[in-house]
Amino acid sequence: MYNNTLQTLNTTTLGVTQNYMNCNKSDDFKYPLYSSVFSLVFVVGLFFNMVAVYIFGCTLKLRNETTTYMMNLVVSDSLFVLSLPFRIVYFIKREWLFGSVLCKISVALFYTNMYGSILFLTCISVDRFLAIVYPFRSQNIRTRRNAKLACCTVWVMVLSGSIPTGFLLDTTSPRNANSSSNFCFENYSKKQWKSELSKVVVFIETVGFIIPLLVNVFCSVTVLRTLRKPQTISRGGNLNKVKILRMILVHLLIFCFCFIPYNVNLIFYALVRSNVLKGCYAEYVVRTIYPIALCIAVTNCCFDPVIYYFTSETIQSSIKRKSTVWHNGAKLLDRLNMDSTQSSPNTKTKSQTLRSLRSNMFVNESTV
């Protein structure tokens, strides 16, 4: 009887241990999810960021401290978008084909984009806070020179975290002992999580997420409280108040939507991988949420151009003027082409008029 009970207990203990050791770690659903979402982000993000580059580089005449932060944000987003095809191929093939160096660069660009975006958006939020809460006292602070210094500081902070993450860690690992195919930016060992990655997560979460999140919330709440004061309404007008409220809402929604799910889950993911948080259920939850949160996070390079539009009246005016020029020019060209098909006398004069109209459109566009 005693032996049977002892054997049952041993079998139960062994079964629990085996169940714990053999936790269901299958998260293969992430590969089709990643390949689909990243492909969409690449197409949309490339288009929006190329438009942003064109506006900032070719049509935007007035540059200030806010556009300085935005231009740096465009650079960060564009670099990440251009690295997405390598990831897409990896998620489709489920094998890294481009060598260890490109894998390290891809990892570094991901963290550069995410935490660079967070910090540059925080700079925009602080700049708006100074402009509205302290409009006169902040005039000596809100300068293009100080904005450039702030951007340089952000780049130093971001690169000091992303480069070690990408280049000092062993970002590639073989799928198994008998295979020559490699993982990239995944499947880190628990030893690596305990010794190195947990420290990286603590650094990037504190400096790159928690502090900027608190700053963004503080600035937004303070600006909203300032806008409720009667003297603020009389100073700026009700229309400006509506615009600022819309700007803050868009900024805060995009910030929270893109970055909170991934960074909160990353903390729990690190705890699970470091064996601080144990249990199959905990591992199943964080492994399931992680790919979804990551897909949401990478969409920030598509949403950032929305912030450009709502934050800068200069950009709004530039886009409206350019769309007006092209719309009016297109209508005149269509009308001229219709007239030319209905009657064909004096063809030479009409062609000259057409060339003159196109030339005038080009001149009008260049002056926008």
Automatic annotation (TrEMBL):
<feature type="transmembrane region" description="Helical">
    <location>
        <begin position="149"/>
        <end position="169"/>
    </location>
</feature>
<feature type="domain" description="G-protein coupled receptors family 1 profile">
    <location>
        <begin position="48"/>
        <end position="308"/>
    </location>
</feature>
<keyword id="KW-1015">Disulfide bond</keyword>
<keyword id="KW-1133">Transmembrane helix</keyword>
<keyword id="KW-0325">Glycoprotein</keyword>
<dbReference type="Pfam" id="PF00001">
    <property type="entry name" value="7tm_1"/>
</dbReference>
<comment type="similarity">
    <text>Belongs to the G-protein coupled receptor 1 family.</text>
</comment>
<keyword id="KW-1064">Adaptive immunity</keyword>
<feature type="transmembrane region" description="Helical">
    <location>
        <begin position="31"/>
        <end position="57"/>
    </location>
</feature>
<keyword id="KW-0807">Transducer</keyword>
<feature type="transmembrane region" description="Helical">
    <location>
        <begin position="289"/>
        <end position="311"/>
    </location>
</feature>
<dbReference type="GO" id="GO:0005886">
    <property type="term" value="C:plasma membrane"/>
</dbReference>
<keyword id="KW-0675">Receptor</keyword>
<keyword id="KW-0472">Membrane</keyword>
<dbReference type="InterPro" id="IPR000276">
    <property type="entry name" value="GPCR_Rhodpsn"/>
</dbReference>
<dbReference type="GO" id="GO:0001525">
    <property type="term" value="P:angiogenesis"/>
</dbReference>
<dbReference type="GO" id="GO:0035025">
    <property type="term" value="P:positive regulation of Rho protein signal transduction"/>
</dbReference>
<feature type="transmembrane region" description="Helical">
    <location>
        <begin position="200"/>
        <end position="224"/>
    </location>
</feature>
<dbReference type="InterPro" id="IPR017452">
    <property type="entry name" value="GPCR_Rhodpsn_7TM"/>
</dbReference>
<dbReference type="GO" id="GO:0007200">
    <property type="term" value="P:phospholipase C-activating G protein-coupled receptor signaling pathway"/>
</dbReference>
<feature type="transmembrane region" description="Helical">
    <location>
        <begin position="69"/>
        <end position="89"/>
    </location>
</feature>
<feature type="transmembrane region" description="Helical">
    <location>
        <begin position="244"/>
        <end position="269"/>
    </location>
</feature>
<keyword id="KW-0297">G-protein coupled receptor</keyword>
<dbReference type="GO" id="GO:0002250">
    <property type="term" value="P:adaptive immune response"/>
</dbReference>
<keyword id="KW-0391">Immunity</keyword>
<protein>
    <submittedName>
        <fullName>Lysophosphatidic acid receptor 6</fullName>
    </submittedName>
</protein>
<keyword id="KW-0812">Transmembrane</keyword>
<dbReference type="GO" id="GO:0070915">
    <property type="term" value="F:lysophosphatidic acid receptor activity"/>
</dbReference>
